[in-house]
Each structure stands twice: as structure tokens, then as C-alpha cells.
Amino acid sequence: MRVLVVEDDPRLSELLLRTLRAEGLLADAVATGALALDAAQGTAYDVVILDVGLPDTDGFAVCAEFRHREMWAPVLMLTARTAVGDRVAGLDAGADDYLAKPFAIEELLARLRALGRRGPVSRAPVLCVGDLRLNPATHEAWRGEVPVDLSPRELALLEAFMRHPGQVLSRETLLDQAWPMAGAQRSNVVEVYVRYLREKIDRPFGVASLENVRGAGYRLRRDGGA
To answer: Per the omega criterion (within 30 degrees of 0), is the bond before 147 cis?
Structure first.
């Protein structure tokens, strides 16, 4: 696995390089957002470790630019910011996971292994299922030609369904896809947001695209309910 470390703190950057290389991984390090974009453009990295606080920009902007340039390597964001709003900003920018400083090296390695197994996911500019359309890059959704106003978490959940039309997705799978920071949390967040989605993409249009599969999870109909 090849890893790009984007970190402007030289001590932390060196520690991460030594640790990753000791684990048998190929690792490169840069200290600015501009250098990160150049490096990722020229090398196929399996995972990017991206610090939020960089001297020339912030990690949110760098991650968003990765996705704009269609570079889909999983991104693990590192930051001293722990506010929920900052975590949401990172995930909405296209990050795949989020680790707050200070962190345990063992946890970072575990998250890297998980992201490496997931691998890059090629993301079509616009997803289409029946007459449902979603543009993950611009956070826009439509039912037919009618725009549907969705929150960032509703968009993430809809994207998870639209990438797997006709498939039953368990509650745990949906948590992993739309709430990667939820961990082992076992609240009713999935049920609540499925209800929110139905209120926006189904009921106003007189359709039923999201189906409950008893004891298994939820499924988006292949025809999108059209």
C-alpha cells in the first residue's frame, strides 16, 4: 500500500513516515496543499493522510480539489479540531474518515488498513436510478426535473442507496457509508434519516422508492420508484 502524508508539522510528519515504513508501507510526505495536489496527480496513492491545518490552505479545500480532479484515493483527515461542524465539513469535502489529534498510532494504522481494503471508488459525475438523479460533487439531487433540497447527511445516505440500487443495505452498512465516524454507535440515526429521505424524494411525488426489508435493512428500488 502506498500512502501520501500531508502534514506541515515536521516532527509529526517524520513520525508518521517512520511508522508507516516500519509497517512495510510505501510512504511519501509533503507539507502544503499545493504539493499534495501535485504529488497525488503524479502518483497513484492508495490512501492519503491529510492534515486540516496547512500553511497555504486547509485540508477541506485540498480534499475537495482531489475529488474535483477525480482523484478518488480514500482520505483520512487529521486535525486538532473536534467540533461536529468541522467533522461534517471534512466529510462533505469528500473525506472518508476523520481522526482527531492527539491520536494513538495503533488507531491510525487500523483506520489506514480499513481504508486500504476499501480502495478508491470511481464516482460518476451524476448517479441515476430511475428518475432519481444525484450529483455528489455539487450536492444536488432531482426527482425528474424537480430539484430536491437535501441536507449533507441526507445526500450521503441517498448516495449510498444510489450506488447499490436493488441491493439490501443493512443498518451497519449504511452507518459505514453515510456516517463513517459513527463507529459502534447504535442509535436510530439510520431510521430517522430514511424517514427524512422518504418525506423529500418519495411522498411529494407519490412514489415509494425506499423499501424496508424486515430484519435485513433497506433497499432502493432499481426503478427509483418511478
So the answer is: no
Return the bridge partners of 195, or none: none
Angle between helices 59-68 and 84-92 (to 10 degrees): 20
Read off the pTM: 0.58
The CA distance from 100 to 5, in Å, is: 15
Q: Are strands 2-6 and 26-30 parallel, antiparallel or unpaired?
A: parallel
CB count in 10 Å sphere of residue 21? 12
CA 95 from chain centre, in angstroms, equals 5
Residues of the chain below pLDDT 70: 81-87, 119-125, 179-187, 226
Gap between the Cα atoms of 79 and 73, Å rounded: 19
What lies within 8 Å, CB to CB, of 100 at 6+ separation is: 78, 79, 80, 81, 82
Q: For residue 61, which amino acid is it?
A: A
| Helix axis angle, 171-178 to 189-197, nearest 10° | 80
pLDDT, position 119? 66
Q: Are 137 and 154 in contact (CB under 8 A)?
A: no
pLDDT of residue 184: 44
- CA angle, residues 22, 28, 29, in degrees to nearest 5: 110
Question: How far apart, in whole angstroms, are the C-alpha atoms of residue 37 and residue 30?
Answer: 10
**Bridge-partner residues for 133, per DSSP?**
128, 142
Q: How far apart are CA 189 and CA 127, in angstroms?
A: 24
What is the rounded distance in angstroms from the CA atom of residue 48 to the CA atom of residue 40?
A: 9
